[in-house]
Amino acid sequence: MKMFVYGLREYDERVYFDTFGKKYNIEFDSCGEKPTLENADLAAGCDAINILTAPVDKAMIDKYCEMGIRCIATRTIGYDHIDYNYAREKGIGVLNITYSPATVADYTVMMILLGIRKLKYIRLRAEVQDYTLEGKLACELGNLTVGIVGTGRIGACVARELTGFGCRMLACDPFPKAELSDVVEYTDLDTLLRESDVITLHAPGLEENYHMIDAAAFAKMKPGAGLVNCARGPLVDSEAMIDAIESSRLGFACLDTVENEYGMYYYNRMGEPLNNPQLAILNSHPNVITTPHMAFYTKEAVSDMVENSILGILDYFK
Predict the structure, then answer these.
(1) Does residue 122 sit in helix, strand or coil?
(2) Is 75 helix (H, G, I), strand (E, B) or coil?
(3) Mean pLDDT of 258-273
(4) Do residues 75 and 194 share a domain?
(5) CA angle, 198 as apex, 194 and 199 as ends, to 5°?
(6) What is the dihedral of CA 211, 154, 193, 255, to 10 degrees?
(7) Same-domain pairing of 30 and 154
(8) Same domain for 82 and 151?
(9) Model confidence at 273: pLDDT above 90
(10) How many Cβ atoms sit within 10 Å of the Cβ of residue 17?
């Protein structure tokens, strides 16, 4: 069994690929670049390729199919960057992975606290030696209502972690979890939007969820409510979010992911113009915090991503 690893990061992933490659007796070659048509031939002679978030379209799938690649594993939970329906038609398996939900849940709770305590504004004022209190008055999380959109593994973990703060929690999900019935109040999305002081998104990036938080959704929110997105950028209409922030409808936004982040996040773009004007506008606001899709990034998660991608490939061929 042999795989080719694209986008391998020497500074954190290499040690795990070396360790788990030996443990599971799987041979691999690698490069640090994302998969493209131009470097597809690097995977010649392999049974599978192992990638990160780089897009894999029909042309690339055709190329890999001609080369005899039978499986594409992505070291991510999301797999919307791969044309998986076309891959299935061509007889190529597509695998995603799981890692501990606590890594994103911890980050989400941190983002909620950063937002309600106005930390970006406090830091901006402190950097110019303004240590006054005006404009920095915050709320206690225990007195707020938090709306959790999506109670899969990560959303459920967020709910359990928030129980320690004593806040009321609303949740919406097409598949409510009975084991969360004593933690959250399940309701519909409209009710959640109207009654929540903070809304945190944990829905998958499916086509039917595209822009689930749009202008109409923002209009239903409490004035001054906050939004946290550590899930998928396209869940939120960026233009509508900017309008909601600039009209003060939205009190704050803490965003680990945004629309159109491919080719930007995980790359060094120092000194370059970014082809994402919406992100520039969002970053200009003192009540908006953005981070470059980092919620997953712990040692435990990186180890899980590598090991589970290898196990997925082995299971697929079994």
Answers:
(1) helix
(2) coil
(3) 90
(4) no
(5) 75
(6) -60
(7) no
(8) no
(9) no
(10) 21
Computed from CA positions of residues 165, 167, 173, 175, in that sequence, does the dihedral angle turn out positive or negative? positive
Residues 165 and 305 in one domain: no
**Cα–Cα dist 39/33, whole Å:** 9
Is residue 254 within 8 A of residue 111, CB to CB? The reply is yes
Q: Per-residue pLDDT tens for 50-81?
A: 999 889 999 999 999 999 999 999 999 889 89
CATH number at 216 reads: 3.40.50.720
Domain that holds residue 195: 102-290
The domain tally of the chain equals 2
Cα–Cα distance list, 65 to 12, 84, 87 (Å)? 30, 13, 9
| 6 close to 31: Cβ distance less than 8 angstroms | yes
CA geometry: angle 124, 295, 224, nearest 5 deg: 50
**Average pLDDT in the 156-185 region?**
97
pLDDT averaged over the chain?
Answer: 96
How many Å apart are CA 71 and CA 80, to the nearest integer? 16
Q: Do 309 and 201 fall into the same domain?
A: no
**Residue 46 CA to its chain's centroid (Å):** 30
Nearest C-alpha neighbor of 144 from the set 233, 222, 91, 44:
222
**Same domain for 106 and 94:** no
Residue 302: predicted pLDDT: 97
pLDDT of residue 263: 83
Q: Which tokens belong to 61?
A: 């799938």
Please give the model's pTM, rounded to 2 decimal places.
0.92
182: helix, strand or coil: coil
Tell me if 147 sits within 8 A of 112, measured CB to CB. no
Q: Which residues are catalytic?
A: 232, 261, 293
Residues 260 and 161 in one domain: yes
pLDDT in tens, 199-253: 999 999 889 999 999 999 999 999 999 999 999 999 999 999 999 999 999 999 9
Residue 126 CA to residue 118 CA, distance in Å, equals: 12
- 3-42 pLDDT, tens digit per residue, is 999 999 999 999 999 999 999 999 999 999 999 999 999 9
- What pLDDT shows up at residue 217? 98
